[in-house]
């Protein structure tokens, strides 16, 4: 249904889509900045990491755009990559520059294209081909609901308020994450000592502090967990969106809350594999490819301290020396349990371990709070888009929406 005062139009009626390409190898085009799909952050309308055509050694034809253009990625529309760069340049042939026609506010058109209804329609059309993409004629035919210009401007103003809050929160989150990383590198290596602690740190082999866990799943536990970089040990269904373990789980290790597991597969951010602690469940089962272990004596070894220690990557140097390079070609590091538990660590006495863990945990809590706030802002904006861009909720032109981002 079309709201009162709104119009239903084809996208081609409200925007001019670019045609004709230029050669990025010749001037003046060679010196212009280039925007590709990889430079646009999904769902945000923002551009990052732009370089000139010459710097990128581009050779194939590109579209030219100016500072008034909207640039839209026609490849995989579900990724929702659209932006207003705000400068003149060239864009990938996998993108369309387009310009709003008279009576169309550019900021509103950007929000409209970012909105769930538009993305849903373009995604559905793009799935007709093997490589999901939308061609010029299909894009021009996408139906859109269009309010009067004054209402367009007000909707764009409201939604941009949420965009600004999201950007501020993302910057605060990034800053907190960098601060935590620096804090870990200082506190976990004794480069920086907390007040009141002066005892020297001591060298221990992991086998002096931890014991290997090889308990088999004889109790038929079905809580299969896997290691996630962001969430630690989580249920397999949550990580893969499906169960991938074998139907028979009696040949899996059973681990308990507070115990650790080392995934010997290298991944993004974990070049020598990741070590995580089971925090979210009382028990879980893991593949026997993992090396599982637990603290010998919590009076001498604080689990929270070592959770941060392992996360910092301070074991990577030692692991790189014992890993069989031949196994890395398949993503699996051939680290023997005996070699793993033979690695050395330098640690303080228990009271300093606990104090360091408390400081880093506090930094974690700050990061989690910012992440929660960011998720809240994104959810609120999405909900507003579903209402304001469809006319389900109308705004008065002479006043602002009586809400503000959380």
From TrEMBL:
Domain Type I restriction modification DNA specificity: 3-173
This protein's UniProt keywords: Coiled coil, DNA-binding, Endonuclease, Hydrolase, Nuclease, Restriction system
Ribosomal protein recorded as keyword: no
Name the record gives this protein: Restriction endonuclease subunit S
Native species: Serpens gallinarum
InterPro entries: Restrct_endonuc_typeI_TRD, Restrct_endonuc_typeI_TRD_sf, Type-I_RS_S_subunit
GO MF annotation: an example: endonuclease activity
Coiled coil: 360-387
